[in-house]
Specification:
3-dehydroquinate dehydratase activity, alpha/beta, 5 strands, 3-dehydroquinate dehydratase, about 40% helix, Rossmann fold, DHquinase_II, binds 1,3,4-trihydroxy-5-OXO-cyclohexanecarboxylic acid, DHquinase_II_sf, EC 4.2.1.10, about 15% strand
Length: about 140
């Protein structure tokens, strides 16, 4: 089984972001960990990152057209992108929202997710394990 693991703006620069919030893995190391976690549960992860809303939307269209499950960390798009929400809503396969940090324990503008309402579930606050937990959830959802 293949899963698209989509990552939004600034996640490609994790090495430059606050390590107290995002940990100390850079994006390449996070990608390796996600791929390895996928193999553990029999999932092939296609991990992508973009700072562009247009590109994120085109990847969600690809998932919708090909019925591919999605794990998405929309990053800052989480809090305001209705366009990404609408694209995510077209994905009929499982779609899980993930965050490295717990946005609910941070600034108030992060308390709103416009994506959660169209996701099957949200996993936040566990660092890279948020992705691992999402992979377990997707594999169970697809099997059941
Ligand atoms: C994030 C949380 C968002 O609020 C933030 O804009 C990010 C990363 C996370 O993974 O914790 O860029 O999605």
């Amino acid at each position: 089984m293949k899963v698209l693991v989509l990552n939004g703006p600034n996640l490609g620069r994790l090495d430059l972001r606050d390590s107290k919030i995002y940990g100390d893995l850079d994006f390449a190391a996070l990608t390796k960990l996600i791929v390895a976690s996928g193999i553990e549960v029999g999932i092939e992860c296609d991990v992508r990152q973009s700072d562009s809303e247009v590109e994120m939307i085109s990847w969600l269209h690809e998932a919708a057209d090909q019925k591919i499950p999605v794990i998405i960390n929309p990053a800052a798009f989480t809090h305001y992108s209705y366009a990404i929400r609408d694209a995510a809503d077209m994905v009929s396969a499982p779609l899980i929202e993930v965050h490295l940090s717990n946005p609910m324990s941070r600034e108030e503008f992060r308390h709103t997710s416009v994506i959660s309402g169209v996701a099957d579930g949200t996993i936040a606050g566990f660092g890279p394990d948020s992705y691992r937990l999402a992979l377990i959830a997707v594999s169970r959802m697809v099997k059941s």
